[in-house]
Protein 1
Amino acid sequence: MQRILQKTRSYCTVLKEVKKNQKIDKPKENKLNFTELKYPSKVPSKPIKQSFPTGEKPVIDNATIQLLERLALVNLESKEALSTLEKSIEFAEKISHIDTTNVLPLYTVLEDQNLYLREDSVTEGNCREDILRGAKVTEEDYFVSPPGNIPLQQKEKDFTDN
Amino acid sequence: MKRHLQLSIKQLSGFYADGSISPRTVVDHSLDDAIKLKRLNAFIRLSPEKALHQAKESDHRYENKEQLGVLDGVPIAIKDNFCTKELTTTCASRMLSNFVPPFNATVCERLANAGAVLIGKTNMDQFAMGSGTVDSIFGPSKNIWSNDLVDKWHIAGGSSGGSATAVAAGICYAAIGSDTGGSTRNPAAYCGVVGLKPTYGLISRHGLIPLVNSMDVPGIFARNVGDCLDVLNAIAGPDDRDSTTIRKPFRKIDMSFNEELDLRNVRIGIPKEYHCEGLSNEVLETWMKVADLLEDSGAHVHQVSLPNTSASIFVYSILNQCEVASNMARYDGIEYGHRAEIESSTEELYANTRAEGFNTVVKTRILTGNYFLLRKNYHKYFEKALRVRRLISEDFKRVFETPKNDENIVDVLLTPTTLTDAPLYNDFVSQSNRDQCAVQDFCTQPANMAGIPAISIPIRLSKRGLPIGLQLMSKSLNEEMLLRVAGWIEQQVEFDCLANEQIYAARS
Amino acid sequence: MYKKLLLSKSTSRGFSTQIQTAKTNLKNWKSVVGLEVHAQLLTDSKLFSGSSNEFGAPLNSAVSHFDASIPGTLPVLNRKCVEIGVKTAIALGCRVNEVSMFDRKHYFYADLPVGYQITQQRAALANDGELTFPVIVPGKKTYYKKARLLQLQLEQDSGKSLHDEELKRSLVDLNRAGAPLIELVFAPDLETGEEAASLVKELILILKSLRSCSCKMEEGALRVDANISIHRSGEPFGVRTEVKNIGSVRSISQAITFEIQRQFEVKLNGGVITNETRSWDATTRSTVPMRDKEVLQDYRFMPEPNLPPLRLNTSATDTSCSDIISVASISRGIPELPEDTRSNLIKKYQLSQDVAVILVNEAKLLQYFISIMEHVPGIPAKLVTNFLINDLLTFCNKRNVDIEDCQLSYIHLEDILSALHAGTINLQAGRELIEIIHENPSQKVQTLIKDHNLEQITDEKMIEQFCRQAIEQHEQAVKQYQSGKKKALFAIVGEVSKLSKQKANMKMVVAFLEKILKSE
């Protein structure tokens, strides 16, 4: 056993047997002195400040809120949520000043790879049980949904301070 | 201290082979530890029956000398956004709290085929949105290095905090997380373990419930670089079911540690922009020291510049929210997941299901993303972000491959992982989710933009006794170089992630 | 229900008189029609998943995890879909793009489980094609029309939802979700319903010969939506409406014609045409609004991140790279297209344009023609086409039988036409044979001619006899003929035909009568 343990990597600091109820010694002092450097550091000693201009504060009107809620089917529930949305947009504005003339969008880092094509054969499906199992409501092998094409009832949002 | 926990995966496997320990025993201990350390809240769900069954089978294999490889019988954990057949996969959300996938993610399949034993699914930020593992319906995960696990505890980091803290606490030997903007490296740094984000496309995402499809990568947690490599070798490689995997066949990396790495052939780059505002003195000191160590041992260390670094968080924020808006469109309650009671119309049902099933963070990102994707806004935000993304990616290409004029070409970049050691939970939650991410993800997120591999390794403990880690990055598919350099640093700093009072206190 | 029908019929009748007035008042107005066609591809599996693309599978059985939008599943593109898309694009004169990409088009609907459709919006498979096709309008000369094909793109089909009015819910079957479609977007180059129907007929011929699509509109394999607007000559295009739910080729012409007229009517009454979607109602033969209010829709297109760009080899020279599909080699595999078939027929057999169009429109008829021309040497093409079109096709139409299901074999028709050509039988006998064979397809023509006594009477003495008999019975007609009314002869000829039980050789009869009556 000892021989095997000796062959282990030096990373494993505790090589001796430790009894069950014995507390381990305090963590070893770092043998490295982190304040001592031998060479002039390549790490800049001061932070590199990069400023991003603060643009206009975005204004989201009620029409836009209603549109977003309908398109996303998620409700903007409170003043905080609206404020988060506005802040996120303000955040996003910060890249608008960056010069991207003649720079193409990078849709995927694999843009140079050819899209893999699958052979045309039936290899999946025939698993109706799997497919229906997760659904809370089914009816004789169908999924069930309420009638569609009824527009969402939307209320005007009042996030004023009253 | 349980003897077996001091071992690396290869050593453990060796002891299994010669009969000194059995997989069954080790897995038993693992499950035991998981229960004893419940207050860490590392796990959403344990899978004891499955684990013991797998352990038994592993036992048989070793007995008959038919072991599957170095991972056979090794306890591991998987983040709860990877689909596991017959085991709930919740993404820490109400929406999927009862979702049982009908298939296994490729990563899970490959690990099972290698004989690894799944202890359970780990906690995370809801739908992987966050960098603290504090936004989960199952409660936050705690950092095992905290002095106090009751009310003044530190966060585990996120969004794969559960996996990180589980490995740091010695409950399992390795764990799988996901990394979209630093979600593996961030908690790895906070919890003092190794966290690897491989090259985008090296590991299949089939079965990984996506956050940002163009940046997500399955991540690996382990206690040392060698273990990390063992897991990587088991799961990497193309998958026909994922069109974004790199088609080139994966050749397993073999790093026999008897070979000393000759640092004179290694060029290290220090990107100056990574010293940003908010970087703590201790992290800065750590960074400087390790750079110095490398230089002292013969490596060429140069300062380089990645000018578009600070734009990265803004780009990430836009792309993230747009993809979220799209990826979350499928949650309507009809085919799976939570379903609201209101049935007046499809739109009402969907809206209510989503209101009940998602937390505020998710909802706000969906709305913002939809705003950016509106026809009138598309070019201004989304497309603009993609252009800047290319600039960021080209920054890396320049330093790794095609430097301009008298710029230096480098093999590996050395930077901090996080700006500080793990914050206190109470401090962390006082900030908004977006601000938290913006600050914490500064150093990790550019690697996801470019799809390059990155690893965080623990270096030392801070004055408050919390781990500090550093990050290494390299060009695509250069994992071997990355791991070699990481392994070298690891040997120099001798950080023992299990030398932790909390673990003993919990076990006794 | 009946009352409703009555009401609508009377309204439409009143409507058509109004149309007449409308037409005269709106002489300077033009109508503009643009078509969007969706065609389901003939492949075994779906566009992005390996589940079956078969029509009519049991509920939710041809659905993979990906089709059901189970989280964590990813799309993988079917090679055959790309090949069919490229083949179709080439046949329609398009420029096939070397690089094309996929996008997500977002909207919520019960039959779209994932909340978006994967389609190609910004960089489609092919662009800038055109389709030139014959337009047959009864009573008018056949002419050729050209429509530009703006874009050809690959995209997913949605599932199907059944609306249960009683229980106020929809039942969803995802078998069709993810099935492969190509969408063909035509420029608004057409003007009438007939042109639109003709375009679709030509398109069907092409797609069928390429084996791209079954084109069975009744199964939804081919769907046509029409964008229609009107404007005053010289002014920009007017507001357009979209007409959906057109279930057959015939309906295309009807629906578009109706909509154009409806728009004229609105304009005539001083109204305004709104940009809306309307549905073709085949029962009331009218277009009705589909939604009460056109809701503002923003599809928030976004590139599909799980599918890197699709690359094709567009060079003329083949490279042996099997990874990428070669456009040139697909091009070589394209069969003869309908227009080429037509011009070849016209060239080879000196057929008229109209006849060539009809033959090519009915594949079976064309096959009959070719085989008869091959096996009956010296037979004039006109004789054959006349018989096939005027007699065989008419018979099938009358009996409501599809020409494809016609019971007459090639041999039967060859024998009939040989007999006609040889003068053994006359046209009337030929018609009778069609009827008889349709009931007893096992019989041989020669046998039937004998058994049913269908041989033509060519004996001069007998002809003379019949003629004289007829003359006696039609003194009035004789006088009229002799006084210059040439048409009066037909009455006498008709009598001869009756007397001879339609077996007299008409040519001889006419010649004889003319000779006799002139001399007398």
Note: The longest strand of chain B covers residues 454-461.
Protein 2
Amino acid sequence: MAERLFFFLCALVAISTAVGMVASRNPVRSALLLVANFFCLAMLYFTLSAQFVGIIQIIVYAGAIMVLFLFVIMLLNLGSPEAQLQERELRRPLAWLLAIGLFLVLVSQVFLVVNAQPQPHGAAGTARMIGSAMFTQWSFPLLIVAVLLTVGVIGSILLARRRSA
Amino acid sequence: MTPSELGWALLRVAIVLGFLLGTLPLVIWFERRAIAWFQDRIGPNRLGPFGLFQPIADAVKLFFKEEIVPANADRFIWSLAPALSLFPALVAAATIPWGPNRLLTPVADVEIGILYFLAMSSLAAYGVLLAGWSSNNKYSLLGGLRASAQVISYELGMGLALATAIVASGSLRMTEMVAIQAEPLWGVVPFLHNWLVFTPWGLVGAALFFICMLAETNRAPFDLPEAESELVAGYQTEYSSMKFAAFFMGEYMAVLTISGIMTTCFLGGYLAPVNWSPLQSLAETGGGIFVPLATLTGALAPPFWFLLKVAALVFVFVWVRATLLRLRYDQLMNLGWRVLIPVGLMNLALLTVYLLYGWLPALVGYVLAIALYAIWAGERARRVERRQVILYAEARPYRRAESSPSSTPLSEGKGLPQEVLHG
Amino acid sequence: MTAVPASAYLTLAAFLFAIGAAGVLIKRNPIVIFMCIELMLNAVNLTFLTFALHQPNLQAQVAGHVFVLFVIGVAAAEVAVGLGIIVVIFRLRETIDVDSVSLLRE
């Protein structure tokens, strides 16, 4: 019972923050609501006995990526009222309609397909299991991600450089 | 969860929160007195014995101060920011074990304990960043931007330093990290504990961690976000009353928590420097002189050692603040990205060499790394010296103009290179 | 163990994904569009973890967690480059409105 209550609380906050993020015109508020959303998702990961992924979610998304977003928003001064962009008024209803359609399609698949029972091993979410799987079974994809991150670092350094300097 | 488990959990939370909030005035008082001592002043000494009640008086004063909200500030985010800077400081200490009793400590002995601390400390950037932005003030904004860049940069170095501790102890669980350090020193000295700081990788890791923890808590010499000579008070400029106090409290609680983390990961946690357990067994079998000795060492309980180490680290915080000058922004970034991260990566690599191939190749690796660094640093110093010589030579016309009163004044430009006058 | 059925998690993930998609279509600020994409990626991560919990053997469960970590890594790289591009565009054009940044179309 307590688990259900916790799930619905987290889900409620996650949904409302997601809607708020899209509805808000102020990018700073959008970013903050997204941080709250990621926090709720991390809590949900914990309930799925994925404690390592959950804490990595907080460290990487809430701690690094979203701070970077806020940093850029403030650097470009996009949070002030006069800098806020008008939204595409015409496309708005169409976009919501499309989103609702997408949601219905996905949910129909959910209720058609899923009838499995959870098989909690407990050990699957530990850092030890994930680490050993990552460096043995999934070592090649890991290398590709590493190369991608290196390329990303070099690319962003090149982008940030001013040509005159 | 049974009621008794719940009761114990609440007790654990109460102890940690009570300690953090109760020690806070003491730490603030200590810092003010110690800084005064370093600067040959007296410091607050009027209220209570040795001025001990001064922080309480300050809190009461701040509580009754008027709260001023800046015009055009984003009211909601402006009020949220102090809370956001207080929250991580309050919860980050939850996985630190301060004694061997698992019923009393830590609050939650989770498998990902050290990552939990990293996650919470990374959230501390939000309070500062949002405070700076929502104040609608250029100094606050610059302070907030500086703080976020600094925290992100030094988080990497801190993560690498902690990775050393994690790899060396083979666990993310903080109680296991302490248990590993209880082994005999270097595997041979039986009556001493193998604190991580006594190993080469641990020493480098501890040094890295210490530098990063100064930066993460925005303390001197990394207090650029609140550099009063350039930015008024940085992100705190527009805050008054209890909101200002909240930032203050957050900073000092972060100092306490991060000292506890360093103690646990590198300085042997709650372990005493000497392994007393042979003494206890001698007292049980032999009696005589060993009984009072064993009682004495038993009274010097693990929490005492933990608190002693934390207090020593807090003193070093104050010491560094009183001694070192504030870094310039480019120096800060250079140190974070071009010194700490390469050193941390090298340290981690050499630690894995030790774990895979034994101590001899690792030792050779350390000697090689230090030698390479010495060569590089010497070359760099020579380059800087050469540049200074060149600058000195270029500046000669100015000095001649200054030294001889009969020569034409500087404004007419005699003896100056043209590009100096017009460029 | 968990009393919450998998369909609840999956419905939530589908909802978040749809919200993110709507945001991508509505917003004109590329930074907010980026944030919506992050939301969609996170919705996918939630389904990954939900399905991981319902796998019969341990190896398949761990694989789900590993894939979530890969997604997070790719998202981090994407954000680094994407925000760099946005800053450069702002420097060149003084605006980052995605509808007015259409140099290649004209």
Note: The longest strand of chain B covers residues 189-193.
Protein 3
Amino acid sequence: MSVIQIQQLTKHFRTRFTPEGRGKALRAFFRPQYRLVEAVKGISLEVDEGEVVAFLGPNGAGKSTTIKMLTGILQPTSGGSRVLGLDPSRQRQQLAWQIGSVFGQRSQLWYHLPPADSFRLLGAIYEVDKPVLARRTAELVERFGLGDFFDVAVRKLSLGQRIRCEIAASLLHAPRVLFLDEPTIGLDVVARREIRGLLQELNRNDKVTVFITSHDMGDIEKICKRAIIIHHGEVVVDESMKDLKHRALARKYVGVRYQSPVTFAIPGLPPIKHTDRSASFEVDTRQHTLQEVVNKLSALGELEDITIEDEPLENIIADIFASRNEQSARGVAVGLAGKALAAQTLAGGQS
Amino acid sequence: MNELNTIQPARRTGRLGAYLRFMGMAFAVNVKAVLEYRLNFLLQFFGMMLNNAAFAAFWAVLIARTGAVGGYGFNDVMFVWGFVSSAFGLAHIVFGNIRGLSRIVLEGSLDVYLLQPKDVWLNLLASRTIVSAWGDLAYGFIILALLPGHGPLHWLLFVALMVPAALIFVAVFAGAESLCFFMGNSSGISSAVSEFLLTFSLYPEGVHGAWFRWVLYTILPSGFVAFVPLRIFKALDWPLVPLLWGIAIGYLALSYCLFRVGLKRYESGNRMDARV
Amino acid sequence: MSRRLTRWRADWRTGLTAASTAIREKLAFRANFAGTMLTYGLFIMVFSRIWANATAGGTTVAGYRYDMLVWYFIIAEVPSFALGRFFWSLSRDMKSGQVAYLVSRPYDFVGYQFWERLGSALPDLFIILGEGLLIGCLLTGGLPPLAEWAGAYSGGQPLAGSGLAWLAGQGLRALLVVMSLLLSGSLNFYLQFSLAMTAFWLEENDAFYWIFQKIALVVGTLIPIELLPDAARAVAVWTPFPYIAYAPARIMVAFQLPEALRLMAVQLAWIAIGLVLARLVFAASSRKLSINGG
């Protein structure tokens, strides 16, 4: 049974812009000029009950806009969607009873109050009976490990603690679908891992359908079985996590630095850039295993540092564009930009 | 743990009951906050009393010199300050977000309220309370106790008039704030409206010219939050009380509609072309 | 002698630089000032209606006619709107530790603060004053008459003398009003500085300021002190409060040179007292600062 159905969903924004130049700015004040931004251009997809779906894409790809349309915050320009059989654009309130949501950047907790009070207020908003509320709060506190700071004002919590509270709070009314928009944004590695674990457990135990957006591949690699990548408002990939992983994780970036100058002459593995003591390589793990590459590199000289990085999401998207031969001109351009970016990250990683 | 999915939100309670429960809960939680910030609260209360006392001294001096001003004697002035203060306080206690609405909209924080199964307007306005407003609420009752010749009936009438006046404050403040949906950053207009409404309410009706009174009974309804209540109170004119309630509900309805119309234009967060 | 002169000039230059920096900074944040202008205008409108009502039928209140009361209010409110908010910024800087850092700089702290804060208030002063003049002329049909200047007060008849004398009178009055306003601002600064410095001893010292501000409001700001009951006025004239708002406003509406000079002399005397007080409080508080280790 599909819990989310999206058909040809589009969203256009009209944003005002002020042209450069003093006279023009003045004219624009009286006669504003608008620019049309197509944030979402006809997305169609279905999500089944109990699925954990990752909605991936770089910043500005339209992820948040889509999730906001699915939760009834934004009205679509055209097309339609159904969540649990309800139309979010017209049945927002009915839908709200059955969905939970965490927007990484927007808190549903009262900033100056301890989470305990927020939970009580949310209980009242969602009309959860008192005994039920008490039991569920206790459960969530235990499960999300909120005990230590449940009585501390939210403003004093760390971001990781706050997000844990946010997710717990969004589950208070036992939603059937959970929407998470960039839940791990700004979190450190440990907190990220915790959140991922919690979401995984949640889906496994309670069969909650989870729809999660992120611009971080690592976020969803572990917990999602299906990945949807959107870019410039369109779905460019909709496939199982396994396939995507195969594609995405096949390529690694390896950076090395040696104590003394070496010559980088490894057959079949030219460096993408190098100095006399350091270099970076793009490794296709289907041709060379990482083990093999690392062995060869360490044989060259005394290694001072070695870094191995996944391919950035931008590159994967760029490659997808390129390989499909659609919109080839743009694909190549993005691809090149992506490569440059990867090289930069790599350089950053080395220094 | 498997229970998570089996519990559906209880919807046995009636809609109104549920709203009242939520507001009661918000209220209770905020009383706790008052206790937590009691020094701050006491200071604010002290400051407000001092401010009002200064203006009371001004009126005492002036009226001693000239007699009634604009038809108001000293007791009338005191009543109006107390009454307006209480109504203003009540509005900010129950609907603490009336002056934060546009900020919430422009920051995109409205999303949170849109995600919850309650009326956005009510949920938004009621989910905060202003601690210092308790002092304002108390001030009216203090004045009422100090002014001579008021029996229980007067106290009852005071409350019966204060509630619609508070609702009119809510309607006007929230309405002015809702303009942000249409014009981006409207904080200038909304702070002007609230300051004008409050100021005109605190001074005698009779000092203003006839044409200006039209304003005071329409867009800046000082007439309904101060002048009319004073007349009803002095004459113990109970039959007019429902009329004031009706007017208050009318203002609320208009304000609510303005918000709903504006909400259709809401474009969540970073897409709003507003310069805050 | 010449060393002292050099010292003097250096002090002046530091002071003027501080003032002009503050002015420029302030101009950049002009938009914030719109709210203050609005409130000021609103207050004048409301009070002009009150005065119109209180003087209905051409009566006077304690010798003040309608136009005098309106102009009085316009000028008397200027110190509170444009030259009277020193406490908050000082107090904020104290609590944030900014002052502890400023104290260590190699110049006279009280003097530097004075020039900087007063300098930053000057644009406010002229904008508010301009607004007040505009509203006042619209409400009363012109500047308050200079009848008293000629020493021929005759029921509000404007001076019938030569144009030149009129012009000289207007100019002199304008000069003295502005000077008196600046003296008000200085007095306000030293008194509020002394109040703000109590933050070294008391965490919550806002209450002092409120009391100060409200007394100032009743004594001379909302109403001329002539309206106060006799006993209250007899006490009030021995406090600094009338010399914050009353003095410049009185010079504006009932201009007589001897009275104006006397009022300004008392203003200066209070400034001297305020300056000594500010230095004493500051000396005591900076000792406290060094004991606490800043």
Note: Chains A and C do not touch (no CB pair under 8 Å).
Protein 4
Amino acid sequence: MNIKFSAAFAIVMYLVIPFTLGDNNYLIGLVASALIIAGIAVAWALLGNLGGMVSFGHAAFFGVGAYTSAVLTMDHGVPVFVALVMGGIGASISSIFMMPALRLRGPYFALAILAYAEIFKILAVEATSITGGAGGLLSIPTLPVFMGIDFGTKLGGYIVILNIVCLTLITYHFIRKSTYGLALKAMHDSEMATRIVGVPATYLKIVMLLVSAFMTGSIGAFNAHYINFLEPDYAFSGSWTIFPIVAAIFGGYRTLSGPVLGALFIYLVDQLVFKSVMPQGHQLILGAMLAGMIILSPSGLLPILTKFFAPKKNIKKAEGQHA
Amino acid sequence: MLKVEDLSVSFGGVRALQNVNFEVHKHEVLGLVGPNGAGKTTSFNVLSGVVKPVSGTVTYDGHDILKSSMHQRVTYGIGRTFQIPQPMHELTVRENLIVAQRFGRPDGKVKQDRIDEILESVNLSHKSESDAATELALTERKALEVAKALATEPTLLMLDEVLAGLETTSKKLFMETLKKIRKQYNLSMIVIEHDIETIMNMCDRVVVFNFGQVIAEGDPEETFRNPEVVRSYTGEVLA
């Protein structure tokens, strides 16, 4: 991500939005929800866009993270911010059970991960004594007051999820720029070429799965304390997988900022524009827009914006920096 | 240095290798020759960890490499190339070598000066920032294949028909490059090649395969006079 873009993003997200929308709980809540999808999209992109492991199971990490954090705070008195981290760890531990699927490639990996996600959803329903079963958990503690700031408000929650998304972006950035990122990029299309020069491909996949699960689990944990209730159909909903995938690909395939941009764009345009035009079935317009976008610009939104805003002589350079 | 004993490989009902034995000594260039389907590339695949054998042992510098992962074998000093070059797509030529250095060397350190030296050795310096997948001609892809293996700092380099498909002039130049590399990096080599002239020019010793078995081995000139070897190439049925 280039410095100008990062600075503009930080100013808009940390200053412009809180000061202009901070009093409007509905709008700030919408942006926070978009950021939840953005965070999962970044975590998904780490596996799918960078490592070529298309996962349909991120809803499982989201749900496990949410339940882990909720149960730890409700039953064991763990502080909420500590529980957010524990939610991530819980999701990472759950991903260990998915590791046999790393032997598979392409659609087989995607299907195996999807099956694992369903197993976790069933476990959440059946483990009534821990999860509350199908009825779910109510009155999950809100985000606390910390250093005089009430993070339990919509604006406070927005700041927390914004920080989490920024941390996931920074992590993603450093992984991409490292030799591990180069190896992952290479493994995407030429796994044998990487293995034969000594890349421990399976080990790298395991690490990326653990990191991606941790990121998604923390975001799931945040969401549990943000909305204060959980039930399995919601926590393990396929939407927590599908929306982030769409955002990651729509925003800019294999770019750093694309997943965040895609999530903000898709969610906010859908909720603020399409929903007001067509209150029932607004997803139809969204679907048509996504289909059109993928046909017209398979690389996603970011390359279009780069082409539109950047001076012509800098287009190639800018694309290189984002790619 | 490398000792292969009683190595057997099966693919379903097909015995690709049957009780194969051969050795490679330090600083030696060994040629593996034989008709198509004789088991030469399968031997490479076993040595590099791509294929698991049914039985047999392979030791390299005291390591029982059949118990080691592909990654470990590279760090022990075994490098290889593929007959069809396998560049790491989406990476530049230099990035290909960075990945090979980072993961193929036991200490995991990337030495840019070593990468520059290797690029110079295989005549790819001018292409270091080129896209490995789309901007290289066949000769350059073959050179990159060798450079990637060299970047792992091998002591044994296995070259699988690295000259195949090159026109005569390029082939001669490439062969000279390989001989220079051998001296420069003090390498042992195993070379799979169909071109007899190349084998004579490069190899200290040859092992001849046919139908998954070793049928002859020794000095290249003498071995190619062996009637059984001639028959294996001409396709005559053994009495």
Note: Chain A touches chain B through 18 residues (CB under 8 Å).
